[in-house]
Specification:
With 648 residues, this protein is α+β, with helices and mostly antiparallel strands. Helix content is 30%, strand content 17%. It contains 18 helices and 21 strands. Strand 15 and strand 16 form a beta hairpin. Helix 2 crosses helix 3 (49-62), helix 11 (468-476) packs across helix 12 and helix 13 packs antiparallel against helix 15.
Length: 648
């Protein structure tokens, strides 16, 4: 995990972060949230649901703009996403007309910026996966951004990603700068969205005839690719020194050919061992490094035509099958021979068979004929769609399943190619706390998955407690459920409960027909009544609408969570008397909160001019259905209890 340690060092050396942006080819969401996000905020890796909630709250409170851009075909949507960090799938064919459906979004870039304007860019070969940061041999470099030219290239790169991802927060883009410190940096940020290709920028007029390349992946016809490289660089005596990872530490990821043998015989191609000691636990040498003369490139460029952005079409022009790549070219005067180990005498037996190449081949899934981004607004409680129709066929037959929405929604497209916004959808937002995946169907079959984006996170609810017992216990012991930092991990439940007792005067018909709970039930009547009293006291003291709605919908142990936990308890526990009291007690809290809302709505624009109230539809969820009176309990007893407890 050397890259993780280096990221922590970079973050520690900066002021409070303003931005932390990442790009990756494939994405392991659990790795990102467990290791990378804590490094950004200076926290330890979370181990439980409450610690992930604390991590999300820390990101929100610090206002750090953390986001990830990745290829939509290589997100492991079977992983559980526990935070709200935006994941932006980027289709290369939406970035530019220069790229097509077969292009890959392949850069691995980290951009850090603190609130004082200090900027650091990192680039290399490591994807945001456990293998990329902990198991493979990778190459990654960081540089501080001190020149206007590099800043502008970084800005152009991310601006295009924002536009292709339909991010509507235009103010979050990197701002235009006309002045910068007059520093001449000895490195350049290079990416595929520039007009000049990577290979052209790497050679940049160099007459050097030797090139050293580290690359795990090679073209199937390696000799043909080297020939085209010689032509494009106008260096006929180009000598390639290749440090290539080998399958099973033996087989090159290329086919043997007579032309390849001739290149080796003429000394125009030599294979080498890795010049560094390789840990026996390393899965793959995944580093991509190019060295020509005094230029050293570290980035995502494989020694392939699409990977090096040197693939040409039948007319010798830029091919749409090139990938999106990025990295850093550094001025480096070191001898290129330092970059490789001993020469390897390889022949046809060291090249992979067709079967092995097919097994190793990357086969991206087909994308639907449209780009679709789904976002949930926690405050407005609505889903919004953005994207573009990109196909030529019929637009019918597509539907989407959204978290918290029961029915499939038919996807519709405007003439302009934009998706039509869904309307009047009832959303169970608690589902979004555990499922953030939307699923696209075509004619009843699932064809694509994506990650739901989330906005207005200050209105996002935090679900902390496993059950009603844990929630009431936190109140009883004096913890503040509204504060994540005040909620320790709990031990066993206390045993202050007692069974439902027969009323003191059974001759009045107040006896119960059955004993419903054990002597060690997790929730006692005392805990219930004390907790509900505390809820009513808290809401009675609220004098701001924003504060009330935060306590009702957002904070840990919020009223919405209480209503849901109480409903679950009533459905699963066979305690009719206790459940009746529970439902009535929660109903009184709901009624009080609704009454406070009505009062605070009057004049809120004057008191809270910058606050927009939650929609009425969200308040409709703050209600408790009260079951019928338990069997065997007299009507007189029920009437007396209602009067004494002020139940409606």
């Amino acid at each position: 995990m050397k890259l993780l340690q280096e990221l922590k060092r970079k973050v520690t050396g900066m002021g409070p972060l303003r931005r932390a942006w990442f790009t990756t080819f494939n994405l392991d969401i659990e790795f990102l949230e467990t290791f990378v996000l804590p490094a950004v905020v200076g926290a330890e890796p979370p181990r439980s649901r409450i610690e992930f909630e604390q991590l999300q709250q820390e990101l929100t409170d610090q206002g750090i703009d953390v986001r990830v851009f990745c290829d939509p075909r290589f997100i492991d949507t079977n992983r559980i996403k526990r935070t709200c960090v935006p994941i932006h799938p980027v289709r290369p064919d939406r970035l530019s007309e220069r790229f097509g459906e077969r292009s890959l979004f392949h850069p691995k870039v980290i951009y850090l910026e603190d609130n004082k304007g200090r900027r650091i860019i990192g680039a290399g070969s490591a994807n945001l996966t456990l293998s990329g940061w902990g198991r493979n041999l990778e190459a990654f470099v960081f540089r501080e951004v001190e020149s206007l030219n590099n800043y502008r290239e970084i800005r152009r790169f991310f601006d295009r990603l924002w536009d292709a991802s339909d991010i509507h927060d235009g103010g979050g883009k990197l701002p235009e700068r006309r002045k910068f410190a007059k520093t001449e940096e000895k490195w350049r940020f290079v990416h595929s969205l520039q007009s000049q290709s990577f290979v052209a920028q790497l050679f940049d007029g160099s007459a050097a005839s030797d090139i050293v390349v580290w690359s795990p992946y090679l073209p199937r016809n390696l000799a043909n690719f080297i020939g085209k490289l010689q032509t494009s660089t106008a260096i006929s005596d180009l000598r390639v020194h290749l440090v290539a990872d080998r399958i099973q530490n033996k087989f090159l990821r290329t086919q043997w050919s007579e032309e390849l043998g001739q290149l080796i015989a003429r000394g125009q191609l030599t294979f080498y061992d890795i010049p560094v000691e390789r840990d026996h636990r390393t899965d793959l040498c995944h580093a991509k490094i190019w060295k020509v003369g005094k230029a050293l490139a570290v980035g995502s460029w494989n020694f392939t035509a699409p990977g090096s952005n040197s693939l040409c079409d039948d007319w010798g022009k830029w091919s749409q099958d090139n990938n999106i790549e990025a990295g850093i070219i550094i001025e480096d005067a070191n001898d290129c021979r330092l970059m490789h180990g001993k020469a390897l005498a390889l022949s046809d037996g060291d090249c992979a068979s067709d079967e092995l190449l097919a097994e190793e081949a990357l086969n991206p899934a087909d994308l639907p004929p449209f780009d679709l981004h789904v976002t949930f607004d926690w405050h407005a409680q609505v889903y919004t769609f953005s994207g573009a129709w990109m196909g030529n066929g019929g637009r019918e037959g597509f539907s989407v399943r959204l978290p918290g929405v029961d029915a499939l929604l038919r996807l519709k497209w405007a003439r302009s190619g934009e998706p039509v916004q869904p309307a009047q959808i009832r959303v169970n937002d608690s589902v979004l706390l555990r499922d953030r995946i939307f699923r696209v169907h075509h004619d009843g079959k699932e064809v694509h998955r994506g990650i739901v984006g989330e906005t207005n996170l200050k209105s996002r609810r935090a679900q902390i407690f496993n059950n009603l017992s844990d929630l009431l216990e936190a109140l009883l012991l004096g913890d503040d459920p509204g504060s994540l930092t005040d909620l320790p991990l709990r031990g066993p439940d206390d045993s202050d409960s007692f069974p439902d007792d027969t009323p003191a005067q059974p001759d009045l018909g107040w006896e119960l027909l059955q004993r419903e709970i054990s002597e060690h039930s997790s929730i006692s009547y005392f805990r219930l009544f004390k907790a509900m009293h505390d809820y009513r006291e808290r809401y009675s003291a609220v004098d701001k609408l924003e504060q009330l709605e935060k306590q009702v919908f957002v904070a840990p142990g919020c009223l919405l969570e209480l209503v849901e936990k109480a409903g679950e308890t009533i459905q699963t526990e066979d305690r009719s008397v206790f459940n009746w009291f529970l439902a009535n007690e929660v109903a009184t809290v709901c009624a009080l909160a609704q009454d406070r809302r009505r009062k605070l709505l009057h004049g809120y624009k004057r008191r809270e001019p910058n606050y927009t109230p939650a929609p009425k539809s969200r308040w409709n969820s703050i209600a408790m259905s009260v079951p019928k009176s338990p069997n065997g309990v007299s009507a007189e007893y029920v009437t007396l209890v209602r009067a004494q407890a002020a139940y409606e």
